[in-house]
């Protein structure tokens, strides 16, 4: 029996291309489900903070944030947001930058590590990104994050303890250090089976192709060993 393909994903909750990449990855893998020998895949998310200096409560909209932090004009910022909104729509995601609440994401990353420990990381990753990009919810404050954790099926008191104790902060930093060692400077970044690096929100077909390729390599390896 062939072991599952491991896909490690470095991403940030506040990265618009990361949510698009996440959805394209999922749709790409779904396209292999009808294969006679469909790939078995295990996905794990890793922490990457695009803007660690962002305050918990940023006063202003997304245009203001981009203008201040990227040194571009409001017009250029709006053009950027219009472009990414269009790409997101192609992936089936209705981004709402008009209601988005920009915030620091380190606590969200800590909560993702807590969710991983409890077998709910994939569920929480989807809920956090949807809350941020589609629903205009705050994903930087304890109470808001704990409510989202409960929505993902996690225990409320345990989630609160995980955040207040900051016991997963070291795991967040370890992910970031691993990213530096891999030379990852932007996200999303996908490491397939520990040997293939895929950067950016690739199209659905790219993920379908690489899943089939790696699964085929796995199958050949098993068959050769059996022979």
TrEMBL record:
One of its GO terms (molecular function) is oxidoreductase activity. It comes from the Bacteria. Residues 7-208 form the DSBA-like thioredoxin domain. The lineage of its organism: Bacteria, Bacillati, Actinomycetota, Actinomycetes, Micrococcales. This is Disulfide bond formation protein DsbA. It comes from Microbacterium testaceum (Aureobacterium testaceum). Transmembrane segments: none annotated. InterPro entries: DSBA-like_thioredoxin_dom, Thioredoxin-like_sf. It holds the Pfam family DSBA.
